[in-house]
């Protein structure tokens, strides 16, 4: 696909650290627009009552009569206004002569953040008054007419990126927060990346964009689902965790290359990188193997990657699950830096140090180490103490060394070492996961490591009938800078095997999935797929601190919409058609009485 140069320039300009000042951004926008050609530029002014955007005006527009719409960013001495729209800022000269008294009144009295429309001429600024930091800094608008489109009341916070505000306040007034340059940038970049993904999948590779239902039924295993009451007594829909079953059924239906920008729902506790509703780039295809899916995703990311970043280098490196755990202590290793875990058991085989001897005498007992480069130079005594405490607090977790590795990296960076290059994007495939893991609540039972539709590794099928715990799967995860950004698998397309895994190994009620099992019996093709977590991916690309910063209307940490106050209570009479009555916890009853 042709990627318009204005956009690549936009990416380039906007992806710098911009939290402190808006100036560099407008500067970059300036370059992006100057370098763009009319032919490839989106038409920002079509159908609108303006002739130009505020940010696009340059010396090349001198003498033109323009009409602009925007928000009043600030006013100086009743002589100048700075008008803002998504494209940038422009200086407007407030007329001082008697004949324009009404225009002056409008522009001088409208509070900051009021929205106005002005018409006038583009003129050059008087010599010496140019502002080189402002992309429109060589020109100004001599206003002839002005119209107050809507006045703004006193704001709960200033619309300036560098003004600190709490996240709760930002979420409560999200529509104002969206006016910030950072949010504008994040959402526009997200839209452009998705656009390019659609191009790549549909136009270059023949995928079909298909919507699947969001009112569905319970799926066995996996995350907790949100329930939606129905008017049939005791019957509920579930919101899907993902379109997994539908995309497999589409394969049975012969739609052999499916994709969707899919909304998924999981009723799990909030974490910084999780939201109860989130978006996946969901993909499934028939007649494909693991390497086929991996190459597809590498191409997709390469194609949709913002041009200002270092190009994505493919193929991505691959490690097995076992290697990842042994070398990094986690199945989502951050490979931007070394500090790998090394087995030094042999060095201590004949040691007389008691606790090491003790460790080595246990079955599978090992002694492992991480070499911290220049640790002695960078780390202070209290850092070593905090590492020791961290290790003690997490003792007996096998993931301890992996956590310790990241903890040490954080410490080194706070002491000034540059360990993780902020411009580096380090992709990694993790493959050969076990098919099953012991259930957390009952380790004697098994649960799927990915989901129950994942096919076993071809060389481990026999283990399903003898030692299922040892069977590896055809499940692959994509990791970026230590974050899981995608996961998928080759699926089971044989009904008998699927039934055996569900009923015998996972002890699930197969009736819930009878439609899928039946479909597999009617000539289901071999198939596989993957889903990329779009919010997480964009969060990493934009360098945002939280996925909430790349979602227009996210939920709070506790899963609430702080703007509208969802979830909300429903009067009992409105619950009647659903045959539902709320059983209030005793203390909340007391609370409600107040
Ligand atoms: N549906 C899976 C998930 O959401 C991804 C896949 O296997 O394609 O994790």
UniProtKB/TrEMBL annotation:
CDD domains xrefs: AspRS_core, EcAspRS_like_N
Keywords, alphabetical: Aminoacyl-tRNA synthetase, ATP-binding, Ligase, Nucleotide-binding, Protein biosynthesis
InterPro entries assigned to the protein according to its UniProt record, in alphabetical order: Aa-tRNA-synt_II, aa-tRNA-synth_II, aa-tRNA-synth_II/BPL/LPL, Asp-tRNA-ligase_1, Asp-tRNA-ligase_1_N, Asp/Asn-tRNA-synth_IIb, AspRS_core, GAD-like_sf
Keyword flag Iron: no
A Pfam family hit: tRNA-synt_2
Database matches in PROSITE patterns: AA_TRNA_LIGASE_II
Top-rank taxon: Eukaryota
Domain Aminoacyl-transfer RNA synthetases class-II family profile: 187-554
Gene Ontology BP term (one): aspartyl-tRNA aminoacylation
Gene Ontology MF terms: aspartate-tRNA ligase activity; ATP binding; nucleic acid binding
GO cellular component: mitochondrion
PANTHER family listed in its UniProt record: ASPARTATE--TRNA LIGASE, MITOCHONDRIAL, ASPARTYL/LYSYL-TRNA SYNTHETASE
NCBIfam families: aspS_bact
Family, similarity comment: Belongs to the class-II aminoacyl-tRNA synthetase family. Type 1 subfamily.
Record protein name field: Aspartyl-tRNA synthetase 2, mitochondrial
